[in-house]
């Protein structure tokens, strides 16, 4: 059951100061696409821009939403806006169910498994498929428009899986920094690659971070040490108990990941404002030879984390319960991490891995997910559902990855076939190629964008030219 609802015009300013225009629409979508037990519906939100669209020849660039509100993708997928003008394309940004305004059961969405159980990958892909069908049937001008799905991160994985699952609807897919095989990757690969970003910038910095965990533990073992950390690090929540120490170390881990992911060569604000080359900035204090003693090391570490936590220099205190950082933005993403998109993570605490040693225990993880959400994790869901991304009928998929992006550990880094291709970006970080063009872009990022455009042109040339179908009374 699908029905178009609301239309509103919006102007958004992207981080680089450029303007992106879109209108907001909603489509009534079934909560459950795969059974006859419920007729419940919810409004799925999507954004549309047809500024560049030529109804005679233009394709649809369909951006699959992920673990954020859909505006995040509209404002951080600059490449899509730039190539839409080249290909005279219509741009559609589709919000992921249970994100933003697209929540089945509204305020009750996360209240119990009864309402939350419809948050699955397959239900989400079916939402996107139904939206494509709706768009094509809404006007004869769109009925034959080829669709190319696009995305980055988890949304990039969804873009690729749309091509695998609905090849009759999707001509091709562009997946940037897409962790499509993360479940089957060694659990220490992601932390190891985060560490590698810091080590490439400053081996002394990486070594200091590696030593810092024991320095924190030694300080936290005594009341005076906890008081020292609380005061000198200006913590909003003093370290009164082991739980607060745990939050502190989890928060530090999240900061290192964040800095590695968004280590752009220009200032930017994906979440928190960051300076250009933030890892280099963060490592300045820790690269000194004067950080051998615990006190000196922890003082320097505070300066390091301030690159993330206090870029403006105006913060009165720092909150180690930073939910946006620790929870990766949404409850929905955390539910999926406990159900179908489990990402086993562990740290060895050695071999170029500067995190505190922590094993991955499937039983402990399962118990945590059962206690929090009432679900049993499916550790092999992706492999059993989609198999090898390049197997069988998969075709017309491009994977791009920055080799300094930790998520590249779970993506496709090689050509699977003549039509499932990979382009690796030496020194590149998370979905850098999908952002708006910037004067500081490294040459491999520019090449990656040209690689994508070459394949888009190839895909579009493979379909029969769309017959002119513009009518004077149908605009």
Overview of this protein structure:
The protein has helices spanning 70-76, 78-87, 113-116, 121-138, 154-165, 189-201, 203-220, 223-232, 242-261, 278-283, 294-309, 323-326, 331-338, 362-373, 381-386, 443-461, and strands at 4-13, 19-30, 41-49, 60-64, 90-94, 147-152, 172-176, 268-269, 273-274, 397-402, 420-425. With 475 residues, it is α/β, with parallel strands linked by helices. It has two domains: 4-181 and 388-461, Rossmann fold (3-Layer(aba) Sandwich); 189-373, Four Helix Bundle (Hemerythrin (Met), subunit A) (Up-down Bundle). The strands form two sheets. The protein has a nine-stranded mixed β-sheet with strand order 1-2-3-5-4-6-7-10-11, sandwiched between helices. The protein has a two-stranded antiparallel ribbon with strand order 8-9. A hairpin with a 3-residue loop joins β8 and β9 (273-274). The two termini are 26 Å apart. Mean pLDDT is 89; it is low at 1-17 and 466-475.
CATH homolog superfamily of the largest domain: Alpha/Beta hydrolase fold, catalytic domain
Strand content: 5-15%
- Total helix count? 16
Mean pLDDT: 89
Largest sheet: 9 strands, mixed
Structural class: alpha/beta
Q: Got a strand count?
A: 11
Q: Which regions have little confidence, pLDDT < 50, spanning 5+ residues?
A: 1-17, 466-475
Query: What is the total number of structural domains?
Result: 2
| Rg, nearest Å | 23 Å
Strand order of the largest sheet: 1-2-3-5-4-6-7-10-11
Portion in helices:
25-40%
End-to-end distance, in Å?
Answer: 26 Å
* Gross morphology: globular
Order of helices and strands: EEEEHHEHHEHEHHHHEEHHHHHHEEH
The CATH class of the largest domain, by name, is Alpha Beta
Please state the second-level CATH architecture of the largest domain: 3-Layer(aba) Sandwich
Using the coordinates shown, work out and report the CATH topology of the largest domain.
Rossmann fold
């Amino acid at each position: 059951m699908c029905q178009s609802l609301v239309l509103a015009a919006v102007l958004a300013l992207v981080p680089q100061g450029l303007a992106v225009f879109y209108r907001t629409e909603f489509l009534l979508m079934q909560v459950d696409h795969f059974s006859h037990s419920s007729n419940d519906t919810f409004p799925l939100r999507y954004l549309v821009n047809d500024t560049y669209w030529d109804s005679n020849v233009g394709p649809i660039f369909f951006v699959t939403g992920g673990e954020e509100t859909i505006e995040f993708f509209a404002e951080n997928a600059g490449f899509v806006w730039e190539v839409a003008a080249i290909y005279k394309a219509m741009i559609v940004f589709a919000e992921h169910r249970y994100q933003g305004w697209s929540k089945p059961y509204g305020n009750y969405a996360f209240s119990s498994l009864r309402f939350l159980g419809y948050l699955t990958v397959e239900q989400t892909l079916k939402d996107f498929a139904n939206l494509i069908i709706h768009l094509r049937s809404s006007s004869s001008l769109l009925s034959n428009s080829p669709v190319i799905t696009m995305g980055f991160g988890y949304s990039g994985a969804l873009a690729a899986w749309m091509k695998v699952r609905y090849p009759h609807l999707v001509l091709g897919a562009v997946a940037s920094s897409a962790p499509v095989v993360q479940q089957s990757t060694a659990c220490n690969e992601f932390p190891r690659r985060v560490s590698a970003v810091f080590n490439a910038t400053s081996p002394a910095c990486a070594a200091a971070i590696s030593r810092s965990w024991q320095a924190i533990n030694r300080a936290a073992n005594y009341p005076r040490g906890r008081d020292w950390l609380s005061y000198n690090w200006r913590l909003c929540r003093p370290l009164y108990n082991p739980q607060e120490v745990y939050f502190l170390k989890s928060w530090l881990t999240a900061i290192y990941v964040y800095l590695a992911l968004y280590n752009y060569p220009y200032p930017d604000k994906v979440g928190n404002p960051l300076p250009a080359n933030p890892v280099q900035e963060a490592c300045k204090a820790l690269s000194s030879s004067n950080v051998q003693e615990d006190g000196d090391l922890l003082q320097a570490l505070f300066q390091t984390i301030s690159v993330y936590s206090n870029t403006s220099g105006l913060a009165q205190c720092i909150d180690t319960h930073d939910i946006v950082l620790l929870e990766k933005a949404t409850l929905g993403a955390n539910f999926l991490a406990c159900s179908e998109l489990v990402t086993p993570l562990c740290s060895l605490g050695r071999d170029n891995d500067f995190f505190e040693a922590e094993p991955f225990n499937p039983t402990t993880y399962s118990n945590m997910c059962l206690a929090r959400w009432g679900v049993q994790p499916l550790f092999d869901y992706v492999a059993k559902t989609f198999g090898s991304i390049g197997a069988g009928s998969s075709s017309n998929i491009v994977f791009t990855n920055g080799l300094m992006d930790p998520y590249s550990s779970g993506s496709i880094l090689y050509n699977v076939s003549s039509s499932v291709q990979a382009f690796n970006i030496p020194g590149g970080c998370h979905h850098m190629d999908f952002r708006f063009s910037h004067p500081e872009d490294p040459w491999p990022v520019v090449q990656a964008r040209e690689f994508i455009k070459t394949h888009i042109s190839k895909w579009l040339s493979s379909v029969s030219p769309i017959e002119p179908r513009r009518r004077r009374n149908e605009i």
